[in-house]
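Review form for a predicted model. The reviewer records the input and the model, then writes brief findings.
Reviewer: anonymous (R2)
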Amino acid sequence: MATQIVLTYKDYEVLPADGRRYELHDGELIGTPAAAPRHQRVSGRLYRLLQTHVETQRLGEVLYSPIDCILSDTTILQPDLVYLDAQRQPAISGRGIEGPPTLVVEILSPPTAQIDRGAKHQLYARYGVPYYWIADPDARTIEAYRLTGGAYQLAQKMEGEGPITLPPFTDLVLVPDGIWP
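Model under review:
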């Protein structure tokens, strides 16, 4: 019987800078390739929209990948975007974000879609991230989940052409043409 090695933050911080994104999922090392241009375009557009709103309203801070979201010593994720409301801003440290941010955003791409909808969805819920958005450039949708009773419930879905607001932002209107390349 093989012994499973559980990696920790100490192991994670000495990984090579080889162009891949690494995460620890309950001590298991997960690697993914760098994001494709389409993914980066969506990420950049969402970042600018969120950052402008959050900064203007003085609601906290928005950060983009690569940023370590350290949920435990054996669970370190790199969401595409994170938002921390003003009360959670002290979680930002020299290592990354120590604990759950207010919102994580994952942008689906072929190499990561299954992980984003599966393992990461479960890990974000387990560690108490209140809001989770999954942006799907192919379907041109954003699913906005709210943590309720330890599990995510779909709170709102952006699809079609009409403007919409998604939790946790009640006064930020997202227009699909401003997001999708």
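Findings: Residues 4 and 105 are 30 Å apart (CA to CA).
Further findings: The chain has one domain: 36-178.
Recommendation: see findings above.
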